[in-house]
Write a structure and sequence with these properties.
Number of strands of chain A: 7
CATH architecture of chain A: Sandwich
Order of helices and strands of chain A: EEEEEEE
Strand content of chain A: over 45%
CATH topology of chain A: Immunoglobulin-like
CATH superfamily of chain B: SoxY domain
CATH superfamily of chain A: Immunoglobulins
Oligomer: heterodimer
Number of strands of chain B: 9
Number of domains of chain A: 1
Shape of chain A: elongated
Distance between the termini of chain B: 17 Å
CATH topology of chain B: Immunoglobulin-like
Strand content of chain B: 35-45%
Helix content of chain A: under 10%
Strand order of the largest sheet of chain A: 4-3-6-7
Chain lengths: 105, 156
């Protein structure tokens, strides 16, 4: 597929890490029509994003087709230290998935 | 009104080609995720969606939950929403848009380490409230933000 997911994780005071992620995905709602053919474009969107800190699940995002194309996601994680790893994995409604890992800096 | 539709369609056109290619390439859709609450995302009423996620619709407005939205969204295809909450023991945050066809936009299952804020971008069909529902303990708390969706960038 297209471009790879980007994940950044920066630690702030008090062990709080802010994670920012940008995924590249069409996020089709299944309601739009192709202008040329008049056919409905099938739904194709990310359903679930799993976030793991050092292999432990800290956040699960359940998304509907309402989330924008190329979804951006930001959140924070407490009790972290530099060098910890944050892994994001998305899975879409066709079963496709992608993972990306960032080291907290 | 029709202008909103135009810009929405145009914003999506760029992705159409990529979407088609992917759809053609993945002809064998595998199993749908078990955890994904299909019923909730397909609900056509806000109450139904909340009930499908949490099993209750008893919302309590709380000042410990805040929804940060742009007052005016120039492009309804990309509206940045931030939900902050300060409730102890929060388990879940959901974002709902009453004026969208699919009311439930996103639902986040939190953990102890990850519960203070969530930012994401959503699509909005037209000017609407954005409702955030936070589950903490056995209760549901909510807050609202309003986004005016326009076409141009000069509106006040």
């Amino acid at each position: 597929m297209a471009r790879k997911m980007k994940v950044r994780a920066f630690i702030k005071d008090g062990g709080i890490t802010v994670v920012k992620a940008l995924m590249f995905h069409p996020m089709e709602t299944g309601l739009r029509k192709d202008k040329k053919t008049g056919k409905t474009i099938p739904a194709h969107f990310i359903q679930e994003v799993d976030v793991q800190l050092n292999g432990n699940k800290v956040l699960t995002c359940l998304w509907g087709p309402v989330v924008s194309k190329n979804p951006f996601l930001s959140f924070d994680i407490s009790d972290t230290k530099a060098g910890d790893t944050v892994q994001l994995t998305w899975t879409d409604n066709t079963g496709a998935s992608e993972s990306a890992t960032a080291t907290i800096a | 009104m029709d202008n909103n539709r135009r810009i929405f369609l145009r914003a999506g056109m760029a992705s159409a080609a990529a979407g088609m290619a992917v759809a053609a390439g993945l002809l064998t859709p595998r199993m749908v995720l078990a955890a994904w609450p299909k019923q909730a995302f397909e609900a056509t009423k806000v109450d139904d969606a909340i009930k499908a996620v949490y099993g209750s619709t008893a919302l309590e407005p709380s000042d410990k939950v805040t929804v940060k939205t742009p007052d005016i969204a120039e492009n309804g295809a990309v509206v940045s929403i931030t939900v902050r909450q300060k409730l102890p023991g929060a388990q879940s945050i959901s974002i709902l848009v009453p004026e969208n066809g699919s009311k439930l936009a996103a639902s986040y299952e939190l953990s102890k380490q990850c519960s203070s804020f969530i930012t994401c971008r959503i699509k909005m069909r037209k000017t609407s409230d954005v409702i955030a529902v936070v589950k903490a303990g056995d209760k549901l708390y909510s807050a609202k933000g309003r986004v005016k969706v326009t076409l141009g960038g000069c509106g006040g």
